[in-house]
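Hi all, long-time lurker, first post. I run a small reading group and we've been trying to get comfortable going from sequence to structure in the token notation. Rather than ask abstract questions, I figured I'd post a concrete chain and ask someone more experienced to write out its structure so we can walk through it together at our next meeting. Sequence below, copied exactly:
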Amino acid sequence: MANPKDPIDSLFSFSDFPEDIQLCILSFLSPPEIANFACTSRRFTSLCRNDTKLWFSMCQRRWGSKTQISKWGGGNITYKFLFKTLTEWENLIGFWRQCGRNRNDLSGESPRLIIFEWGPSFVSGSRVCPSKNGTYHVTKAPFLWMGISPDGQVVNFLDLEGQTEIPSRGFDSFLEFVCSDQNLVPVNVNFMGEDHFIVEENSTFWHGSKSKDGFELRRSSSSKNLIEDTEEVNVVGAESGSPGSLPDSWVSEMYTHFANRTSPGGDRSWRRQRKKEKERQGRRRWEPAHFLKVDDYLPTSDKPLQGLWKGISRNMNLEFYLVKYDEIGGIICQRIGDLASYSPAVFWTSEPMLMQSPFSPEEEHIYDGRVHIQPLAAEDDSHCKPAVTGIEMVSHILHMNSSCNIIVPALVGYADLHNNGEGRIWRYTNGTFGFGFLNDHFVIDLKHVIQDGCLLDSVNFL
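-- Answer (accepted) --
Happy to help. Here is the structure in token form:
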């Protein structure tokens, strides 16, 4: 601990550090801590108000290795606004799955699984779907584009058919042909906590216009997000609203709605407004869809079966599986494609009994007498070689009993659970596993969906 009476210690203070060192240290602080620090002196207040120095350093340290900070918003937005936006969007990176059913499912536009990734000046969400040719291949196609326009507005576009190419010159150039692309639908992305968001069509987006110089969005109260030579960036205090918040026009519409209901002749006006609303809903191209975050999509040393997996079922269709551990050590596996609130479990056991090699002759007989479902060799070159599936590849065996007596009452009545009953989970030495039930003679081998940050066996849709 420094001694204030020591002349050597008293010679150094934070003010004595070079400015680049100060900015590096301050970049580790949170915005509330920056606001508190700015109150300590006038000099530090000036430093904290410098958008191109402090807030750029904060953005660069946190996301500089993942995206190109200076290209967001065409370089016309403040880094403080960018920091606020990316802080909220950062949680999107990873896998999400849709929950519930709506009209989008009938048209095939709703994806089972989405993966969000960083782009040079945007965040992109891609559909990840299993192949339909009996192989381990997965298709990846664009689904959602999220970025910031040059005039400082958060803009999101839904790609209904997954055919839009990745912007090569930045998100601002991507906006130039948005008007002419009929497959792109403007949407609002509303966050419901950290693990849930809703995608809703933004029917008011096209109130904008196409200017002579290019694409121009409908102006709202977002001028504080732009860099101006005569404006000083304020540190203390937060802006009103947030990325993905309701547009100002909606507030006006709400006010008009309640004013009509309480004014003379308001009933007729209200009926006309309801009629227009129904007509607008009839032209809607996207129904609101809910998405939940897929936590723990990778296995760990203490939870080796956890995560996202893919396997070929008995009908030779590739399926996505999500395996989770509960608080008491039980294991549950569900298909990603099951969108119902209470979808049946593929297997579930509350007290898995673990066995290690060497195994008993009975267990070896149970495993050796089964058929491993393999992909179609003619369609899958990467997995066409016969896999080594002997008992020597098995490191652990887990007993499972998917009995309806140990599951939630809402799942009772599903035929899958009644039919499956007792089974086994075979862990392999390569880190994967397979499962099967005693009432059949098959093993469904599961493989990783993602490994080392890369989507395995991925085939781009474009």
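A couple of things your group might point at:
The longest helix spans residues 266-282.
The radius of gyration is 28 Å.
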